[in-house]
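Usage

Read records sequentially. Each one opens with the input sequence:
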Amino acid sequence: MPPLVSVVTPTYNRLGELGELLESLSRQTYKQLEIVVVNDNGSPVAPVCELYPELDIRVVDLESNGKHVRARNRGVAESSGSYIMPCDDDDLLVPTHIETMVRELEAAGCDMAYSDAEIVDFVWEDGVRMPAKRQLFAYEHDLPAMRKFSTFVPSGSLYRRDVHDSVGPFDEDVYHYWDWDFFLRVSERHAVKRVAAAGVLYAFSQSGSGGNLSGQLEDMRPYLDRLSAKHGLGDLPTKNFFLLLEEEAVKSRRAETTIVWDGRPFRSRYAPYAGG
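and closes with the structure output:
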């Protein structure tokens, strides 16, 4: 039997987005899935989850709002798969993504794999998110360069559960940069592979109006300083994400990849009830 993949998703008051993620998971060609939805003391998620009875969904309701990193750690602790796949509640996975990631990880014999992505600026239309803008996010796997600017996309990445035995849980103290920190810690002790396929649709509003954490600069500096001190990264900028992508050092790392998404929206079963 194929290994069980636990998709770990923290969520907080984004039922429409969560519904579309579950829709994308219901379309996966890889079926050995367990979805652990960690509700960070937000609105009940049962109205969405119950619409996908074919999925093995475990809902973990937190008694207080501990923020997303703590919720991720709780989700990993509650999961039972031999492989873990983090995924934000507003991101999406193309139907072949998990199958591709399992195949690539096992073929390479590595402990963690991450894929390329498309950054998508979504707009709501009649209860469905429609793509307003799409931008390819594909960069060479360059460890020294990763210490200056991370191109690791945590959503849709896949790693062996026992990785946590050597590196520990996600670090709540670096908060906004938990993913960069996790990538660096795993890379120090384990083999990591980039998969050259844009199987992840990473929801990110260039205007910053989408509520994405990465779009907020004002309170990120202390956490970036903690990350830098922890890994000896030196002075790192907190510039706008899209401006950083246009810097020559980052542009020079752009890589060839396979675009997988056909551009069609993932209309969820919850959409008729969402009201836009």
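Summary fields computed downstream for this record:
- The beta strands are 5-11, 33-39, 57-61, 83-86, 92-93, 112-125, 128-137, 158-160, 192-203, 258-259.
- The chain has eleven helices and ten strands.
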